[in-house]
Amino acid sequence: MIKKMKCCLILIVVLSASIVFAYGDNHPLTIEDLNRAVAINPQGADAFYDRGILYEKQGDFSKAASDFSQTIKINPDDLQAYQARASAYVSLGQFTQAIVDYNKVIELNPQDANAYYNRGLAFANIGSFDSKAIFDFTQAIKIDPGYASSYHNRGLVWEKAGNVTQALKDLSKSIELDPTLAEGYYNRGIIYDKQGRLLDAINDFSKAIKLNPNYAEAYTNRGSIYIEQDDYNQARFDFTVAIEINPKLSQAYNNRAIVYYQLKQYAKAMDDLQKAKGLGFGVEPGFMAAVQKELDR
Fold first, then answer.
1. How far apart are CA 133 and CA 156, in angstroms?
2. Does residue 78 sit within a domain?
3. Residue 91 burial by Cβ neighbours in a 10 Å radius (0-12, 13-18, 19+)
4. Could you report the per-residue pLDDT of 245-270, keeping only the tens digit for each?
5. Does residue 89 belong to any structural domain of this protein?
6. Where are the alpha helices (DSSP H) in the chain?
7. pLDDT tens-digit map of 128-180
8. Which of 42, 63, 39 is nearest to 51 (CA)?
9. pTM here?
10. What is the CATH number of the domain that holds 45?
């Protein structure tokens, strides 16, 4: 009945430091300027590349990918263009295409830890290539032993593969390398919770919240443990904060309804169940019926 949030990858694609505007990072050119440059010189790879960067900054990833493709057509070994197009593909959810581009980046620069990391992310998002994701995160770590995010995401792939021992080892290492990594504490807390190590889980969720006070999922999972400990007031507080941060977090409404039911506040429980259901959450019919029965008394 209690619904908890799941582990999540750090989905931020890390761009290599070399990805900058061809004309300089702070150049004043606009898309209109670059349109004219492309019209004057259709073989000018730099203009296509810089226009792609501007499109990406505006969130128009399809146009960005198109311009990076044109850059690559003009200059097939343009490392920056492959990196940037791969990033655009990831933003579009086109992970297979991104992997092809990261393959080329690694071919051009085998010591690019970020390329291995990003390709590992793409494999992990596809979901059926866990061994390849682990390989890539491992390669990134070999190149850069301090790569906290690679340890973190490798740990999550290990957890998905059922190797909890290795998952905890990697998540703990990511925290050791980067004590500000809220996601590391959050995801380790989820594993501790599954193992029944509730105090350890609460401690990790609390650390994640301290690092990121807007971490609604951490509040939700900590509140769920408080329900298991019959600490309904603290659970209610956590779910309420989670909802204030993210009013569309359906699990928080569902779980707060459980708290209200235990506190015999049935009208509030029904209200939260209706909100959870309205957000598409699979509310258990038996629980809703039990709340309605109390309201009908």
1. 10
2. yes
3. middle
4. 999 999 999 999 999 999 999 999 99
5. yes
6. 31-40, 45-57, 61-74, 79-91, 95-108, 113-126, 130-143, 148-160, 164-177, 182-194, 198-211, 216-228, 232-245, 250-262, 266-278, 285-296
7. 778 999 999 999 999 999 999 999 999 999 999 999 999 999 999 999 999 99
8. 63
9. 0.86
10. 1.25.40.10
